[in-house]
Amino acid sequence: MPAVFNAFDILVSSSYGEGLSVVLGEAMASGIPCVVTDVGDSAYAVGEAGLAVQPKNPGALADAIRQILELPEQKRLALGKRPVNEFWIIFQLKK
């Protein structure tokens, strides 16, 4: 999956409800900044590696996507790399 995620600029998860998205963890492990809806543990997991918005709010979702995409490339890449290790520690996962 790293080859797939390395082609992404961002990951967007617009779920209305779920626990913890596996795809979110995979994207974060690949250093991809994320835009998620604040459902389940998604916002907590993303932390400073992206943005979280309220579910069922397409305007806020679009604004968050735009906000990340308009960052200079180096800042966008740095955003995705921030708390990857914290994610693994918090959720007790192993790479």
Description:
The protein is mainly α and 95 residues long. Helix content is 47%, strand content 12%. The protein has 6 helices and 3 strands; from the N terminus they run αβαβαβααα. Helix 3 links the parallel strand 2 and strand 3. The model has no long low-confidence stretch (mean pLDDT 86).
Overview features:
95 residues, mainly alpha, three-stranded parallel β-sheet, 47% helix
Write the layout of secondary structure elements.
Layout: H1 2-5, E1 11-13, H2 22-29, E2 34-37, H3 42-46, E3 50-53, H4 58-69, H5 73-81, H6 84-90
- Net shape: globular
Count, helices: 6
Cα end-to-end separation = 13 Å
Radius of gyration: 12 Å
Order of helices and strands: HEHEHEHHH
Give the rounded overall mean pLDDT. Answer: 86
| Structural class by helix and strand composition | mainly alpha
The fraction of residues assigned to DSSP E strands is 5-15%
Q: Main sheet, how many strands, which sense, barrel?
A: 3 strands, parallel
Sequence of strands across the biggest β-sheet: 1-2-3
**How many β strands by DSSP?**
3
Low-confidence stretches: none
Overall helicity: 40-55%
